[in-house]
Specification:
single chain; about 625 residues; alpha+beta; GIY-YIG endonuclease; Nucleotidyltransferase, domain 5; 5 domains; 6-stranded mixed sheet; globular
């Protein structure tokens, strides 16, 4: 594209309409995504001579080989498209949010006849009640565990009342953690009263629960039932702890606010967020941002808001920002559309609200100062290591590296793995597994050729391919690339007699590397990760097939129950060690089916439990058959 692309001519064709533009380098990599109210004016600014351009813009423009654009109907539509494209391509000259944090919620399925309470990672627009977001996964787990003890609601997925009486109650019922509505042991009205108490507890109303537990504890003590009194005292202590430490908010009925400020130094920035719910500090968190040196606070805040709130399931009613950001009104409209209700983006100028911003900024600087050494070490370990690999090979602009490995046992169930590292960090969402289809037997070269050929059919190609081997593996990859008309540099990770990496094989030459360098450590991590990913996948397939072959012979266990057992138990040993009760508690099972599984896996145990008369008959039958 860049060879036939005349930038001056293409600039003349730009429309005076809103839209999104994408800047590409000579490797066809998207290096920047931006939006414009008028594409014609905005894109032309990058290529006009001006002394006001920042070092970041000048550096980016020097790498632009061609650009493309997408026209939209409005500025708001352009903003939404820009956020999606930045999230998808993660361009190197956009200020990027490096933390991929998610916050859990507690969901109460009040639309069901017998509601459930459990943790989720996304708040949907349905009839359930959601509480959160929580800044601590541990807080959610502790809260749910406490609720199970206080109000033993069901956790199963059975459809009630349709399935009442169809299966035996699960293990939770026998442990006193469920009231067994699946057996009709509790009425809908009484169960509903427990749900109401759960909702009050999650909304922060714990006074009635504390009073009730206190009365019960005192009564048990007066009756000299000290064991029950101790149990109630521990529950009371847990309730008070949760009420004080975990400020849980009902997202459906309160007005919420996030306070956002940042601190920046060099190419690193910290954004601090205070989560305010019902006028109280529910929690706080900080986020690392990567930016070019000279990026302004306003740009950092703008990019954070776009990236963070396009990915979080919860958007508050107000955002307090440290300073004005570009397109503040458009961003407020976009957030309002995502939320379904108005969102105000405000820069406080005085009073308590301004002091909140100052406090958030102080916290951001504290984290940045604390993490400086850590950030520098991480920089050397990741992007610094990539720069060393560039120096050894003579390559430049290495951003995405992929490594491959093959795993099999004597050719059985051959599989391939692909791991991805971007800027020296693993990108696990892009990892891929391959089951070898066209190769029989332990032929690693042919298997590798199949894997790379299949991978090249997909977009977003790497800047460098690393092979878990030397000359042979490299030549296989290069041959497949030539056959597909693709040019990507390929390096082999050469091993010594002890199977340790000793250098790189590139362009028919072995390049020695310093074993104490960060570049060497990165190559080793990539190699180990590719090997681990392939081995894990192969073992999983082998275990699944082993269990499946055994389960197929059990009477009363069909394909659905086979899948349920495979999902629940990691291997055959775990399944054999399971009790009848544990198997019966799995969805889709009942006690008779569980007994069949156990008796099939432990025939000697079932034989020992046979009546003496039946054993004698069986023995006699076998003896007379042998005599015949």
């Amino acid at each position: 594209m860049s060879q036939s692309f005349d930038i001056e001519e293409e600039l003349k064709k730009l429309p005076a309409k809103p839209g999104v533009y994408l800047m590409h380098n000579s490797l066809d990599e998207i290096i920047y995504v931006g939006k414009a109210i008028k594409l014609k004016n905005r894109v032309r600014q990058y290529f006009q001579s001006s002394r006001n351009k920042s070092a970041k813009i000048l550096k980016m423009v020097s790498h632009i080989a061609w650009f493309e654009y997408i026209v939209t109907d409005s500025e708001l539509e352009a903003l939404m498209l820009e956020c999606n494209l930045i999230k998808e391509y993660r361009p190197r000259y956009n200020t990027m949010l490096t933390d991929d944090k998610g916050y859990p919620y507690i969901r109460v399925t009040v639309d069901e006849d017998f509601p459930r309470v459990y943790k989720v990672h996304q708040m949907k627009k349905d009839r359930s009640r959601y509480f959160g977001p929580y800044t601590s996964h541990t807080a959610v787990s502790d809260t749910l565990e406490l609720l199970q003890k206080l109000f033993p609601l069901r956790t199963c997925r059975r459809v009630l009342p349709r399935d009442i009486g169809k299966e035996r109650p699960c293990l939770n019922y026998h442990m006193g953690l469920c009231t067994a509505p699946c057996q009709g042991k509790i009425s809908k009205e009484e169960y509903g009263r427990n749900v109401e108490q759960v909702l009050r507890f999650l909304s922060g109303d714990t006074k009635e629960i504390i009073r009730d537990l206190t009365n019960k504890m005192n009564a048990a003590s007066e009756e000299l039932n000290f064991e029950e009194a101790i149990r109630l005292r521990e529950l009371l202590s847990s309730v008070k702890h949760v009420a004080e430490k975990q400020k849980i908010t009902d997202t459906g009925e309160t007005f919420d606010r996030d306070v956002i400020a940042c601190a920046a130094e060099g190419n690193e920035a910290i954004v601090q967020v205070f989560f305010m719910r019902s006028g109280k500090m529910m929690g706080r968190d900080h986020f690392h941002m990567e930016c070019e040196e000279g990026t302004t606070r306003s740009e950092i805040l703008e990019n954070f808001v776009k990236q963070f709130y396009s990915g979080t399931p919860f958007i508050p009613g107000e955002l307090f920002l440290q300073e004005e950001i570009a397109d503040q009104l458009a961003i407020g409209a976009w957030l309002s559309e995502l939320r379904g209700r108005k969102v105000a983006v405000i820069v406080p100028k005085r009073g308590e609200k301004e002091r909140l911003i100052e406090l958030a900024e102080k916290n951001a600087w504290t984290v940045l100062e604390r993490d400086k050494d850590k950030i520098r070490r991480e920089e050397l370990r990741t992007r610094g290591a990539v720069r060393e690999i560039e120096a050894w090979t003579g390559l430049s602009d290495l951003h995405r590296m992929e490594a491959y490995d093959i795993s099999n046992i004597s050719g059985f169930e051959s599989v391939g793995s692909m791991v991805v590292f971007e800027d020296g960090k693993p990108k696990k969402n892009d990892y891929r597994k391959f089951r070898i289809r066209t190769v029989s037997g332990p032929d690693d070269y042919a298997s590798m050729a199949e894997v790379i050929g299949r991978r090249l059919k997909h977009e977003k190609l790497p800047d460098l391919i690393l092979m878990d081997g030397g000359k042979g593996q490299v030549h296989i990859a290069e041959r497949v690339l030539r056959e597909n008309g693709i040019s990507i540099p390929v390096c082999g990770m050469v091993k010594d007699d002890h199977h340790n990496t000793r250098g790189l094989y590139y362009q028919d030459t072995e390049i020695p590397v310093d074993r104490h360098s960060e570049g060497f450590h990165l190559i080793t991590r990539i190699q180990d990760e590719a090997h681990r990913f392939a081995i894990t996948y192969h073992r999983g397939l082998h275990t699944k097939n082993s269990i499946q072959s055994v389960l197929s012979g059990i009477p009363g266990v069909g394909p659905k129950r086979e899948k349920a057992l495979i999902r629940h138990f990691t291997d055959m040993d775990a399944l054999k060690a399971a009790s009848v009760e544990e198997i019966a508690a799995i969805d889709g099972f009942n006690r008779p089916a569980a007994e069949k599984v156990v008796s099939f896996l432990h025939p000697e145990a079932s034989e020992e439990t046979q009546p003496a008369e039946e054993k004698e008959n069986n023995t006699t039958g076998r003896g007379s058959q042998n005599a015949d």
